[in-house]
Amino acid sequence: METDIPLREIMVSEVVTGDENLNVREAAKKMKKYDVDSIVVLNEGDPVGIVTQGDIISELVSRDTTPSTVKLKDVMTTPLIAASPNDHLSDIVKKMATEKIRKCPIIENGKLVGIVADIDILSVSTQMNSILADLIEMHVERDILETGSEGEGVGQGICEKCGSFSNDLIMKSGLMVCESCREEMEMGFED
Fold first, then answer.
1. Which residues pair with 51 in a beta bridge?
2. Per-run averaged pLDDT (10 residues), the chain, 191 residues
3. FRET pair for 121, CA 20 to 30 Å: which of 59, 99, 157, 158?
């Protein structure tokens, strides 16, 4: 499986943006209109931060603040962790896992040209277990899984046996496996 794909081949080029002085209420409306869960924050056209739905919820609820009175610059994550369209997929996966981010804006010559989300990476191929392992660990607490009971359902992710995405992973023999692989393992058809 080719993992040195340049990000320009998988990035989404239409990115929802908002000026840093846009209030959170208007930003949330814009996010809803375009059915996205983040907005890249601009200062005079230059990308300077990102705001996610989670940022909005945690910041406004914790402050007990009205969304129309808070500007994006007050809740954005900055400095912006970004990549180049020529960066390789394997490198960005490691960067996203290290930084614990789910979205990475793509910047070329100082201008925003796209964005890559963890879901975009997952859709590239279900056979990329080696580079997706970092993303999986970011989304699933490994310690909780390892202390769980054998055969206990653990949620969605990539099957560690066949590499397929599953909504119903089960812990079996120390691996997170899909239902098909679990059945094979129980019937003794293990590799």
1. 39
2. 75 94 96 95 95 90 87 93 92 89 94 91 61 60 47 70 82 82 78 49
3. 59
- Angle subtended at Cα 71 by Cα 35 and Cα 80, rounded to the nearest 5 degrees: 70
Neighbours of 182 (CB within 10 A): 22
Distance of alpha carbon 74 from alpha carbon 58, whole angstroms: 13
Most distant pair of Cα atoms in the chain: their distance: 62
Tokens, residue 19: 């000026």
In the chain, which residue ranges form alpha helices assigned H by DSSP?
Answer: 24-33, 53-63, 72-75, 89-99, 118-124, 129-139, 142-147, 179-187
* Residues in CB range of 134: below 8 A, 6 or more apart: 93, 94, 96, 97, 98
Structural domains for the chain? 7-124 (3.10.580.10), 140-187 (no CATH)
